[in-house]
Amino acid sequence: MKFQLSACALLFVAFASLSAQPVPSHAPTNYSIGEATAPMQVVGKPVARVNGSVLTDKDLQSTMYAMFPYARQHNGSIPKAMEPDIRAGAMKMMVFEELVYQEALRRKMTVPPGKLEKAEADFARRFNSPSEFQRYLQVEFHGSRPLLRSKIRRSLLIEQLLKLEIEQKATVSAAELKGYYDKNPARFHVEESFAFQTISILPPANATPDQLKEARKRAGEALTQAKTAKTYEQFGLLAEKYSDDDYRVVMGDHKAVERAKLPPSVVQALLALAPDQASGLIQVENAYTIVRLNKHIMAGQQKFEDVKASLRKEMVSKKTEQLRSALDQRLHQGAKIEVL
To answer: Is 127 helix (H, G, I), strand (E, B) or coil?
Structure first.
């Protein structure tokens, strides 16, 4: 499992408190954390040293929560199956950030006073009130505004070096885009496919007659509401509320699926729909599904203009990861890193 954070998120990760973190305005209502670890108990204990600089369990917790924000909504708990990967990824991220910071200091990089003041004001506005910010300042920094400012300065220096070494170099020219498109025609051929959403009612295995009856009732309720859903978002909220499959956490969205990979009954239903319409109940054995057609994509070659934006994003992302990996390797050369 790979983890990374954008430069603009560094300040957010580095020192923001639990109470100060905004939560998404819309999170999947059926999300379940399952078997989870107990919330981390942080005491400021050292967990790593990077060229002598100490990183603590408090830093580790903040980074882990940034990688798995749902933990904040579940009392700091992280699914046991994911916890080792999240912890390892957070440790690597912390070490990388510290190495970047030390490199910025080695280069004698500075932060303009005006930029530092603005970042500090922006951070203070994350809190619900000035008094809440003051409480945070007292708890986390013993009331020391200069200490908070030093943390912000550190984050801005990290962001500045990453922008110089990665963001500014991870550009893709129009010629590069067109060249890639022309050299990879097979990549841009698409088979007939459907972009759609689903609401799926799945009775338990070996369901009793009463359970089957209850599933049919839920499916009927879902269908009644699905027929009135006018938008992608409205149908998606119903998928989160009613659906039993894993797609419920992404608003029932299956993106584009090739026709050949879909059951005949689903294909038949989709072919009968206009975009933004929902089907009736599709029964496969004991399960019930409602599909909403978002787009019917015909087989053919995608035009360059149609894929240019997404292709640029993909190529920039790939180049960014390559540059970041190369920077990480360079910074590790000769560095003394101890995981405690």
So the answer is: coil
CB–CB of 285/178 below 8 Å? no
Domain boundaries, the chain: 7-172+315-339, 192-298
The answer to whether 275 and 296 have CB atoms below 8 angstroms apart is yes
pTM of the entire predicted model? 0.66
- Domain range 192-298, CATH class: alpha beta
In terms of residues, how long is the chain?
Answer: 340
| From 57-71, 131-145, 162-176, 198-212, the region with the lowest mean pLDDT | 57-71
Dist CA 69 CA 86 (whole Å): 11
Q: How far apart are CA 310 and CA 46, in angstroms?
A: 42
**φ, ψ for residue 295, nearest 5 deg:** -160, 135
* Cα-to-chain-centroid distance, residue 96: 20
Task: Give the domain 7-172+315-339 fold.
Answer: Triger factor/SurA peptide-binding fold (1.10.4030)
Dist. CA 126–CA 14, nearest whole Å = 14
DSSP-H helix ranges across the chain: 10-15, 57-67, 83-106, 113-124, 130-141, 145-162, 174-183, 209-226, 232-242, 264-271, 304-332
Give the neighbor-by-neighbor strand order of the sheet with 46-50.
Answer: 53-56, 46-50, 337-339
Give me the residues paired with residue 262 across strands. Answer: none
pLDDT tens figures, 12-70 = 444 433 333 333 333 333 444 456 565 667 778 999 999 999 999 888 988 888 887 76
Rounded to 5°, the CA angle 243-246-250 comes to 85
Rg (CA), the chain: 25
**282: phi then psi, degrees, rounded to nearest 5:** -110, 120
Alpha-carbon torsion (62, 131, 144, 120), positive or negative: positive
Question: What is the CB-side half-sphere exposure of residue 255 using CA atoms within 13 A?
Answer: 1
